[in-house]
Amino acid sequence: MSADAPLPTTEIEMSRTQRELVNSCWEENQYDAGIAILDQLRTSRYRPSVDHIRQLVFISLHSSTPKIPNPIDVQASPSKLTKRERFQLLPKTVIAARRLLTSFSLTNTPEGLFRAIPSWDNDLSRNDEEQESVLAKESLRVNRVKTCWDLLKSDFVKSATASAPSRKGQRRRSSRRNGDSDHDEEDEDANQVVGDDAWATLEWMITIFEKQESLVPSEEPRYSSFFLAQIPPERSGKTARWDFNRPLEIALHALQRDDEAQRKLGIRLLELLINLSSTIYLDFPLFVDNISPRALVLDVMSLLPPSSSVLRFKISLCQRLLAPKTSTAQSRPAVRPRAQLKPRDSASNVVASPSVPVVPVITRKFTGPAAQEVIQLVTSPMKSDTLPILRLRFELLLAYHLVQSQIPVNDRDQEWQLKRGNGELEKILVDNFESEEAEGPLYHRMLQSMICVK
Q1: Alpha-carbon distance 114 to 314, whole Å?
Q2: Could you tell me what percentage of the chain is helix, strand and coil, using 3-state DSSP and rounding each to the nearest 5?
Q3: Alpha-carbon span 34 to 56, nearest angstrom
Q4: Coil vs helix vs strand at 241
Q5: Cα 164 to the chain's mean position, in Å?
Q6: Alpha carbon distance 226, 353 (integer Å)
Q7: What is the H or E stretch that residue 208 is in?
Q8: In angstroms, rounded to a whole number, what is the distance separating the alpha carbons of residues 393 and 449?
Q9: Residue 297 CB partners (closer than 8 Å, separation 6+)
Q10: Is residue 149 within 8 Å of 246, Cβ to Cβ?
Q11: Which of these, 8, 34, 33, 35, lies nearest to 101 by C-alpha position?
């Protein structure tokens, strides 16, 4: 079938007969055959079962690189050795599972796929039904984590495929007892927020989040409720979520990678966070506070698309970094968000569950700086050994101009329009960019061509 087939208005479950065709293969450890059959059954009208998506995700988290088999532990019991020998995945099987997940993301709805992934709104820990195949039993570990971020960690598959039970700390004690020097490196790898074999699964998740965003009606803010469900809710249920450290940590980790494809995943994940921050579901001021110390984010600002959410985020970030540090609120560390936030009586602060039809307006009201404040931030003397001041001023002016051009004419800042037309803005650019060395003249020419009225 064509991968670009249009999505139906509703999906129905694959029939029991179709599901059993796949299950029969996997019960015989014929994983490649099961994946091939599932691909043949793939259609936009029928959604795959929760079990099959979970099992594909579990396979995809394994290594696709041929490796020398680990030596058999002679101290292990026969039952553990049998289990280990029976569950062996070839690299081609892992690659096929990843390819099929990607195909499903193109032909089926996000709702049909992500119901197999645990989240704060989708507790799957009680869905451990009796399974026949070794793959089905092993994949139930997916149900026992809290969010999708836990699946990406380096030690998820290692703990799942270890011959010993996965009780906390047992693997480390076992490695010390065996005196294996390689385990020191394994413990280091276990600290990675994204394992070396989990990048393809992360890309699949991001693709589904983005696809759900694209299906949001144009009059509503672009965000993914499935992505929101991966962030812990506030206990009161009445305030924006603030504990977004896990996805932010993964985005920053990806941006530091040498692999270009992985860095692009970091940019896409950062954009998902920025889009979510344009709603009342995420604490926007706290998000900007947590981002502002990360110099790495400044390096990728130009790579983010010029959407309304991104531009407003850029303005707030540049405003935060260029403003004089005169208050403790501005200089406080952004390691941990505030633990308690008293709900205000404002209707804009009430957060409804994303699975329930939203009655209040969910778009966060953006109170941007006036033109006078923007110009003051650009012209005020400021030096820093850690911040690229000239770059921040360039990004602030460009983002502010683009936001002004996107909003209705009657809502635009009249002082900004006046200074664009009477030449004052051109003089500001000359005084603050041309006199600077290095990239200053380049920034001036770029801003002049886009902002100043000819």
Answers
A1: 31
A2: 55, 0, 40
A3: 10
A4: strand
A5: 32
A6: 11
A7: helix 199-214
A8: 16
A9: 252, 255, 270, 291, 317
A10: yes
A11: 35
- What is the C-alpha separation between 268 and 251, in angstroms, rounded? 8
Residue found under tokens 């099929």? 100
Nearest to 364 by CA among 265, 193, 251, 223: 223
The residue to which tokens 């050795």 are assigned: 81
Pairing of strands 46-47, 12-13: parallel
Which residue stretches of 42-90 are H helix?
50-60, 78-86
- Decide: 400 and 315 in contact? Cβ < 8 Å: yes
Tell me the C-alpha distance between 399 and 447, whole Å: 11
User: In degrees rounded to 5, what are phi and psi of residue 82?
Assistant: -65, -45
Q: Band the pLDDT of 342: cuts 50, 70, 90.
A: very low
Contacts 24+ apart (CB under 8 A), 227-232: 227/272, 227/276, 228/276, 228/281, 228/282, 228/354, 229/119, 229/120, 229/121, 229/122, 229/354, 230/119, 230/120, 230/147, 230/148, 230/149, 231/120, 231/282, 232/120
Q: How far is the C-alpha of 117 from the C-alpha of 226, rounded, in Å? A: 10
Q: Which two tokens stand for residue 16?
A: 């029991």
Closest CA to 100 of 152, 156, 34: 34
Q: For residue 13, what is the enclosing H or E element?
A: strand 12-13
Q: How far is CA 284 from CA 120, 267, 287, 311, 398, in A?
A: 20, 18, 5, 14, 21
Cα(227)–Cα(247) distance, rounded to whole angstroms?
A: 9
pLDDT digits (tens, 9 = 90+) for 252-294: 999 999 999 999 999 999 999 999 999 999 999 999 999 988 8
Sign of the alpha-carbon torsion through 220, 223, 226, 228 = negative
Position 163 confidence tier, pLDDT thresholds 50, 70, 90: very low
The answer to whether the CB of 197 falls within 8 A of the CB of 59 is no
Tally of CA atoms within 13 A in the half-sphere of 43 that contains its CB:
12
What's the confidence (pLDDT) of residue 244?
95
CA atoms within 13 A of residue 273's CA, in its CB half-sphere:
30
Q: Is 374 exposed, middle or buried (0-12, 13-18, 19+ CB in 10 A)?
A: buried
Find where tokens 């954009």 sit: 271
pLDDT higher at 58 or 132:
58
Tokens matching residue 143: 């149900």
CA distances to 16, 43, 46, 190, 212 from 108, in Å: 19, 7, 8, 33, 11
Nearest to 425 by CA among 367, 374, 368: 374
140 vs 151: CA distance, rounded Å: 12
